Amino acid sequence: MEIFFEPHASLVDSSAIALGFFDGVHPGHQVVIKKAVDEARRLGVKAGVVTFRDHPRGLIQGKPPLLLTVIEQRLELFAALGVDVALVLTFSEELCRLSPQEYVEKMLVETMGAKSISVGHNHHFGRDREGDAELLTRFGEKRDFVVHAAPMVYVNGHEVSSSRIRKAVNAKDIELANELLSRPYCLRGEVVHGAERGRKLGFPTANILPAFNQLVPPVGVYAGRVKLDQSADHGAASGKCVPAVINIGYRPTFNNPLETAVTIEAHLLDFHGDLYDRMLEVQFLKFLRDEQKFDGLPALTAQIELDCLTARTFLLEKAERQEVL
């Protein structure tokens, strides 16, 4: 997939594009993107996505929501859906001042050569969010492109939206969040050096440093998986998912007043290897318990052993049911 970060005339000769921020790339977004891909194949043009690097709400309201998927994750998901080219715009003051017609002319017609545009049912664009699917359709009649507006998507009776998924993650309802996403909620980050307390207890952990603008689940202990990067150092596990127990919190048992930042630590079950400085993807599958302060290390160790057993049992049962999420 080709990726561009600056618009300019005739960047793409002709395309069928999906338009949106697409945080999470959930099933509702997938309908919009797949429609663009299908139209591109039908018309014999490139399948494109026009999106933004950062959430527009950051400029408009001063405080953007924490993201379900950072731009690197979104681009990978776009490519997996068959997108040929992505235009990633910076939501600047200049862009924010464009009228709906100016935005369509400069970004979609002149830059992307749009022949077909797919949007969500509630998509808005242009200055003060004045543009919508109806206005876009009228522009299309004049500029020779067709518009496809996707309906709201429901999963098992639940309305699918990025805000609904964020709410589920913040409520520790990881299983609902995954159901609405159609895949496990995950954080991606580099493994950094920590105090190595887990290793001393017999439960070595990978300390993950995710993107600053991504939503981290609330403090607690979770069952999940860690996807290893491609490396010969991992042997047969290279590129695969390894069962894990994930702790997000402040490590209160150690009572260190200097440790005020939340840490994300993943203990990989049945894995031995050096993960420092590698990029890992931590997938959350189930909330197990809240973080606790224990009277001493023996009590903490016993609880970690129980957490590992609970996670193993849960993950084994999912595997037996052949569940992906």
Task: Describe it.
This protein is an alpha/beta fold. It has two domains: 11-155, HUPs (Rossmann fold); 184-320, Elongation Factor Tu (Ef-tu), domain 3 (Beta Barrel), CATH 2.40.30. Helix content is 32%, strand content 25%. The protein contains ten helices and 14 strands. It has a six-stranded parallel β-sheet, sandwiched between helices. Strand 2, helix 1 (27-43) and strand 3 (46-52) form a beta-alpha-beta unit. Helix 5 (100-110) crosses helix 6 (133-143) and helix 7 (162-170) runs antiparallel to helix 8. The longest helix has 24 residues, at 297-320. The radius of gyration is 22 Å and the shape is elongated. The model has no long low-confidence stretch (mean pLDDT 91).
TL;DR?
With 325 residues, the protein is an alpha/beta fold. It has helices at residues 27-43, 57-60, 71-80, 93-96, 100-110, 133-143, 162-170, 174-181, 197-201, 297-320, and strands at residues 2-4, 15-19, 46-52, 85-89, 114-119, 146-149, 154-155, 158-159, 185-192, 206-210, 220-227, 241-249, 263-268, 279-289.
Which key phrases capture this entry?
325 residues, alpha/beta, Rossmann fold, Elongation Factor Tu (Ef-tu), domain 3, 2 domains, six-stranded antiparallel β-barrel
Q: How widely separated are the two ends?
A: 27 Å
Order of H and E elements: EEHEHHEHHEHEEEHHEHEEEEEH
Q: Give helix % range.
A: 25-40%
Q: Tell me the CATH architecture of the largest domain.
A: 3-Layer(aba) Sandwich
Biggest β-sheet strands, sense, barrel: 6 strands, parallel
Task: Give the count of helical stretches.
Answer: 10
In CATH, what is the class of the largest domain?
A: Alpha Beta
Question: Which stretches are low in confidence, meaning pLDDT under 50 for 5 or more residues running?
Answer: none
Rg (CA only): 22 Å
Strand content: 15-25%
User: Could you give me the name of the CATH homologous superfamily of the largest domain?
Assistant: HUPs
**Overall 3D form:** elongated
Q: Quote the average pLDDT.
A: 91
Strands of the largest sheet, in order across it?
1-4-3-2-5-6
Q: How many beta-strand elements?
A: 14
CATH overall fold name of the largest domain = Rossmann fold
Structural class: alpha/beta
The number of domains is: 2
